[in-house]
Amino acid sequence: MLQRAPRGQSSVELALSLIVFVTVVMFGIHFAEVGYLSLKVHEAAVSPLWDSTALRVHRMREQRGAIGDFSTFPAIAPAVMANANARYVDFDGRSSTPGSRTQVTQVFTRLNELRVRCDREDKIEFDVPRSQKPALLAPRQGDWPQAPPGQDVGDSEDSVLDGVYENMGGITCAAEAHIEGLPSLPTTFLEGRTGFFEEKHSVRLDMRVCAAGQAVGGRCQGRYGILLGDFGFADREVSGQCPLRPEQPNEPCAENRAFYEAALNVFDKNGRAAGHSASDFAEYFVGYSPIDENGFFMSYRGEEDDYIEQSTPPGESQDELDRPRNTGGVEHKPTALRRQSNVCFLGIRGC
Description:
- Keywords: Membrane, Transmembrane, Transmembrane helix.
- This is Pilus assembly protein.
- Strands 3, 4, 5, 6 and 9 form a five-stranded antiparallel sheet that branches.
- This protein is of the alpha+beta class.
- The chain has helices at about 10-50, 75-85, 255-270, 275-285, and strands at about 60, 70, 105, 110-120, 170-180, 205-210, 215, 220, 225.
- Helix 1 (about 10-50) runs antiparallel to helix 2.
């Protein structure tokens, strides 16, 4: 039998397929490296933002009229920026000790010259409520929206939280680096009029990579921002107790002076009790008012004080669902007594 002469069709198909396959693989690796290395720049910009949330923004002082202390806020952006630049100089923020390298080199791509910048940004805000003082401190017949003659209605920028809490804004961070293609990725390959490909194989990559957006004129414009502000009352000076002293209104408690002054500041700016209706009611019916309702009273007794009410509402001790949160009952075994006042409620004499 006659055999057909081998013509090498499979070899030709393999050679042509490999030309396309190798090209696709090379660019696939290159594009993957560009995407992976670009994420490192994004990570370097976002990391200091989260670090900033662990730094102090606000402290309360024992100073009437200026309780809020935000003096540490301006140092936050420079601190987190310096930390990020030190940690990401080797493009690896996981290590506590930076490595010696200042660039990352992959198969076809290199990333270097990373820079992180953080700044204070006042445009990021969640401002405190602001409005004029109450326009009506006592009931009047008609013209409700109008303030009584001679009353100070304040300014539209006034806030009852002035001096206690202020909007400090936030910070923004940006990062950029230089990314380039390596000579290991050929720029020409079977192209031209007589080549297999009609288009140029590749153009050597050389550009700025930004953490957010694209570079404009060789500069990165995009930034990430975060609003800062804490009011956790976690400091020792605002966690002390403040026993109730009904016979001594407007008398600061020594163990929690800062928080006392903060609450008093807001109480004063709200016009205190805005009248004497409750006192007038008590004097009319019983002939005496035991306290001045415009006086300021503040009380806080912590768990460490062992201050537990002796008497509880009927049936509360049998409440299985809320028993752990009850103020008394079978499981609490109260030992402390309620503080006795030397003035009877609503002036009832002889009690």
